[in-house]
Amino acid sequence: MDALVRPVVDPAFSAAALAFLAGGVALGTASGLVPGLHANNFALLLAGLAPSVPGDPLLVGIAMLAAGVVHSFLDIVPALALGVPDAATAIAALPGHRLVLAGRGREALRLSAVGSALAVALAVPLAVPITWAMVRGYPVVREHLPLLLAGVVVALVLTESSKRAAVGGLVAFLASAALGLATLDVDPAAPLDAGGILAPLFAGLFGAPVLVDALGGEGVPPQADARITMSPRDLGVSAGAGSLAGAVVGYVPGVSAAIAAVAALPAVPRSEGDRGFIVATSGANTANTIFALFALAALGTPRTGVTVAIDRAEVPLALPILLVAAATAAVCGFALVVLVGDGYLRTVGTADYTRLSVGVLALLAAISFAFAGVFGVGVFAVAGVLGLFPPRVGTRRVHLMGVLIGPLIVG
């Protein structure tokens, strides 16, 4: 209990906390900028190392949380520049990549950063009332979750641009759902214990197809100014929708930030299209980190990879300290998107895109092996072939989220 009443002005603890926060920011930066990596992987590795780390476990928790928050800001960068998202940014990857190809990549980066920052600003004051409501309403939401998700799937299919695209979207959903049912419960032998099957699944479904289609292409064109053209009202509505969707993720088991982003799409103003998708997805991704922390404190059950690691490491749930750490990490994440993102786009734009695509494909295959062994490489290949299907029938890649939604609907 001493961690709950520790004075934040304690110089020794404050210095140590800043050091661990900086370490978490560095880990989140690495995982955010390297295609195929996720902060969960580093968080789980830290959970394994926590017993051997001298000092207060709360410091390790600060590092884990900072890594998760910074990752949620920066993971949009490779999704935009390379078209290689992680699970949480999969929905924004294609719209964002379209903006990059139109020369609006710098604007897309700032839209994502603003969406994440607004989500943090909304999540902290909303966390207490939403926690109160979700603790009481959770049984109803959980009981009707398959029906709610099925409604979202139907809405996405019916809003396709043509009958052919709608049929293609349904086929993509069913095929990806079958892939999820066949693989998500598998626990393959792998070199890294902190891995999992999600990395090869999403690298294959959403990353590899973009890279394959880009082979021989001209790559990232020169980017125009960074001015945000989205209206303040639509920006706020999209960020709010993402933040509320991220709240659901924090309390309902099995629902990821990626699924929350799908659920938030109907609230995105149609006039803003791609830009609204980016803001809502980024908001859901970052808000998820904050709400999951409150859910862990209120319900005692972790809902995300970072909170699983915090729980495993037996980190004291000193919410005031952890929230200050999260807010500080959010400021760092916002600044890093602007400072690093533009340079990332320029570097990719000057590279030989064919060689770059082949190199990133090899990296994704290596990460799949590291996290899920030979089985993971096979999943990456199968998912990659499936990911090539939607654009060839004129339908949206969002239907491939069936890989997660399908198993939840089936139960």
Report on the architecture of this protein:
The chain has 411 residues and is mainly alpha-helical. Helices cover 74% and strands 0% of the residues. It has helices at residues 11-33, 39-49, 57-74, 76-81, 90-101, 105-158, 163-183, 198-214, 232-251, 257-264, 273-299, 305-312, 319-350, 353-387, 389-392, 402-410. Helix 6 crosses helix 13 (319-350). It is globular.
Described by the principal axes of the CA atoms, the overall outline is: globular
Counting H and I runs of at least 4 residues, what is the number of helices? Answer: 16
Average residue pLDDT: 82
How many strand elements? 0
Unreliable residue runs: none
* N- and C-termini, Cα separation: 39 Å
Brief account:
This protein has 411 residues and is mainly α. Helix content is 74%, strand content 0%.
Write the layout of secondary structure elements.
Elements: H1 11-33, H2 39-49, H3 57-74, H4 76-81, H5 90-101, H6 105-158, H7 163-183, H8 198-214, H9 232-251, H10 257-264, H11 273-299, H12 305-312, H13 319-350, H14 353-387, H15 389-392, H16 402-410
What brief labels describe this structure?
411 residues; mainly alpha; 0% strand
